[in-house]
Write a structure and sequence with these properties.
Blueprint (H helix, E strand, L loop, with lengths): L11 H18 L4 H8 L3 H14 L2 E3 L6 E3 L1 H13 L2 H16 L2 E8 L2 E8 L14 E3 L4 H8 L3 H9 L13 H14 L2 E2 L8 E9 L5 E10 L9 H18 L14
Antiparallel strand pairs: 1-2, 3-4, 3-8, 4-5, 6-7, 7-8
Helix pairs in contact: 1-3, 2-3, 5-9, 6-8
């Protein structure tokens, strides 16, 4: 968390900035005391305390009577939910998706987290005369698609376990249908930060996907390229992988994710 400096932090724009940084820090750290907040934000305890009192009066912060520490309140949680309801990830991603298509020439697909894998939000078709893409609204299964596997690989252990216990349809002879093999695939995807699905959903096609994260590091979905395996081979080029991962990082940053690295979930036990 960056330190806030300046001689008149208690007034005007600086006061608003400090209040927002207090909320961000509480949202990230959970329950925090005044001293820890002051140290983290580089200001005095008295200034932090004044802002906390105002935020408490407005319902954005609450204080535990036992520990006297502070945490985000119900009003901030409600505000976050309202923002999420009106958040259009596809609109924000459109320019990044076009840039990725123009860089590599392949169709680009954006999906969001779904209980069964990944749900397609938008597709920007490639520059080839023959279009290979995925319709908006399509469900990409967690065991046999690049975006579905990436979403599950970066989900929590409980969600992974539910997929590993469920029957897995063999779409092609190359579809992963063994729980142990799929768990190993999740580990590989987490380690390298991207996943593919050569011939696993439809013979002759492949996709490369990377995860997209929200402000707090929560998994929102995945961004992928898809094309004939002639052009996106089982072992994709470094240029292809780098371009997909860079586009996913750019979209995460545009949404508000400030992390330097891909968050790793707790692995399946």
């Amino acid at each position: 968390m960056p330190r806030i400096e300046g001689p008149s932090m208690g007034e005007g724009v600086q006061a608003v900035g400090l209040a927002l940084r207090i909320l961000e820090y509480l949202a990230d750290q959970g329950s925090v005391g005044v001293t820890a907040l002051a140290q983290a934000l580089g200001t005095s305890k008295s200034r932090i305390h004044r802002h906390l009192r105002t935020l408490m009066e407005l319902g954005y912060v609450v204080q535990s009577p036992e520990s006297e520490k502070y945490r985000v309140g119900a009003r901030l949680v409600t505000l976050g939910r309202r923002v999420a309801e009106h958040f259009d990830m596809a609109a924000l991603a459109r320019g990044i998706m076009r840039d990725l298509r123009d860089t590599l020439g392949h169709s680009v697909v954006l999906s969001q987290v779904d209980p069964e894998g990944a749900r397609v939000l938008a597709t920007v078709f490639g520059s080839s005369d023959i279009e290979i893409g995925v319709r908006s609204g399509s469900l990409l299964k967690a065991h046999c698609t690049a975006q579905g596997k990436v979403v599950l690989a970066f989900s929590d252990a409980a969600r992974q376990e539910a997929v590993l216990r469920a029957p897995m349809e063999r779409r092609t002879p190359y579809t992963i249908s063994d729980p142990g093999a799929l768990e190993a695939e999740f580990r590989r995807i987490r380690a390298q930060g991207w996943g593919g699905s050569p011939n696993e959903t439809l013979l002759g096609t492949n996709a490369i996907a990377a995860p997209v994260f929200g402000v707090g590091g929560e998994l929102l979905g995945a961004l992928a390229i898809i094309d004939s395996i002639q052009f996106v081979p089982e072992q994709p080029s470094k240029r292809q992988v780098d371009a997909v991962m860079d586009a996913a990082r750019r979209l995460s940053a545009a949404i508000g994710y400030a992390g330097d690295a891909v968050p790793h979930p707790e692995p399946v036990a």
